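User: Here's a chain of 128 residues. Predict its fold as tokens.
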Amino acid sequence: MNWEMARYIIAGICTTLVNIGIFSVLKYGAGMRMQMANIISILAAIAFAFVINKKFVFRKKSKDGLGKELLSFCSMRMISMGIEVLGMYGLTELGSVPDLAAKVVLQMIVIGMNYIISKLYIFREDKR
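Assistant: Prediction complete.
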């Protein structure tokens, strides 16, 4: 395992803690409905993940501008958000899996998928 991947794992754990922490506070502390708490927690985790991936994991300096990277990052994360939202519905509503267990399982899937997308598409090394 290289250092970049180790940094990504650390960042992924921190992002997952942000996601699950906000989800738990909203659902159990504030009594918010599961899907709304899930969407808000994912959006907060996306914002956190962009900063930590750009600065800590991939250490990318913007040549094309911050806006283009942010747009690419958010676009790709909307795909993983869709997978997580649909997965939560499927596992909890159709499969009777407890919501926190479903959230943890889906986080493992999303972290792996997001690393590949971030490495190959968003924060790739310029070969110019």
